[in-house]
Write a structure and sequence with these properties.
The chain has 206 residues and is α/β, with parallel strands linked by helices. The protein folds into two domains: 85 residues, Rossmann fold; 108 residues, UDP N-Acetylglucosamine Acyltransferase, domain 1 (3 Solenoid), CATH 2.160.10.10. The chain contains two helices and 22 strands. The strands form four sheets. A seven-stranded parallel β-sheet has the order 5-8-11-14-17-20-22, covered by helices on one side. A six-stranded parallel β-sheet has the order 6-9-12-15-18-21, with no helix packed on it. The longest helix is centred in the N-terminal third of the chain and has 13 residues. The chain is globular and about 50 Å long.
Length: 206
Amino acid sequence: MNTLRYILVGAGAFGRELINWAEDCGTPFTGFLDSSAAALDGYDYRLDYLGAIEAFQPQQSDCLVMAVGDPAAKRALATLLLSKGARFAQLVHPSAVVARTAKLGEGVVVCPQAMVSADARVGDFVAVNALASVGHDVDLGAYSTLSAHVDLTGWVRVGEACFFGSGARVLPKVKVGAGARIGAGATVMRSVPEGATMYTAPAKKL
């Protein structure tokens, strides 16, 4: 009998998505942590409110899942909770494709129809959103977030705590420095310095 208590860390929009994906995995959440007890009010979710994230004291039977998208905030909260002895579960949706030779770190989330290809290495607390692709031999740094439809092609190197907007693409063997932010729809063809923000031109009327 499974006596673990699965707890959602953060109950914003991404958290509500993860509630659904966890149910698909057969490991539904029983409670959530958030700065607001009313975070799920008005939605059809019946999870117990367990208090603010920063004040939470994990128990041995608790398995946490990180639902915070911002890399810096995610790293700060994970560091705090780990210092209290928390343990984090991976959440990999059954429709996702993860190669046998790929390696996923602690607390990684892989959403529906995403792909992690051969020999890719995905660091701790990375979120790979729906329909995103982590190509073969990619090294994806801890705490990073890939929005939906992001495409990291073969041998890409990504530092820690990077954020990729929806539909962003990185060409083969390109390096993205730690803390970089890649805007929605951008195609990255050259190395990106640490902390840089890259974006595509705005749409124009034809």
